[in-house]
Specification:
InterPro entries: PXL2A/B/C, Thioredoxin-like_sf. It contains nine helices and seven strands. By secondary structure, it is α/β, with parallel strands linked by helices.
Length: 193
């Protein structure tokens, strides 16, 4: 049937209880050691999990700074644990030295268990061709540094917030590299916790 080709796909949804779903998943700590995501996430606080793309990416660094500067104070007031999950170790050391992120940092394991659970997508190579803002010497690249070409640049991320009970109260998934969850939306969710 031809009409099926044009039907809209159902929107992806995170599991209702994210804390339970995340608990058994393997990740790496910043030393490269295997840990369970459940051992990193607080059991008695709300959690904001930012599934970022790459530690060396100027766009990711810029968004980390935006979250740090616009969301961290409210997160601290509300007792929200902020956790960033990077795809790979490449660029981690410089990311940490640059103090771009105020919270905890973990890294996907090679099986990418978190990405699979959340069904996060990969962008097409065509979408990566139009990112002149990442060129060496661009304003963004000068502000936050980084290397736009190191690592797997096609994976998309998102922001997921869970309340104290572990229930998913907010999820936002990237559809392209230029757009991230709005900090005003995130602040509104944190106000409701």
């Amino acid at each position: 049937m031809v009409f099926g080709l044009f039907s809209k796909k159902p929107e992806e949804k995170a599991p209702e209880n994210l804390r339970s779903a995340f608990a058994p998943l393997g990740v790496l700590n910043t030393k490269g050691e295997d840990v369970k995501l459940g051992s990193v996430l607080s059991n008695d606080k709300p959690v904001l999990l930012w599934v970022m793309r790459r530690f060396g990416c100027p766009l990711c660094r810029g968004y980390a700074v935006e979250l740090r500067d616009k969301v961290q104070t409210k997160a601290d007031e509300k007792g929200v644990q902020m956790v960033a999950l990077g795809l790979e170790m490449i660029g981690l050391e410089d990311f940490q030295k640059g103090k771009f992120w105020p919270g905890d940092i973990v890294i996907e394991n090679p099986q990418q268990e978190v990405h699979k659970l959340l069904n996060l997508k990969r962008a097409s190579i065509l979408k990566i061709l139009d990112y002149g803002m990442l060129k060496k010497g661009s304003k963004l690249q000068k502000e936050v540094g980084g290397n736009a070409t190191e690592g797997d640049g096609l994976v998309l991320g998102g922001v997921f917030i869970m309340d104290k009970a572990g229930k998913c109260v907010y999820e936002w998934r990237q559809r392209n590299f230029k757009t991230d969850a709005g900090t005003d939306d995130i602040l509104n969710v944190l106000d409701g916790l």
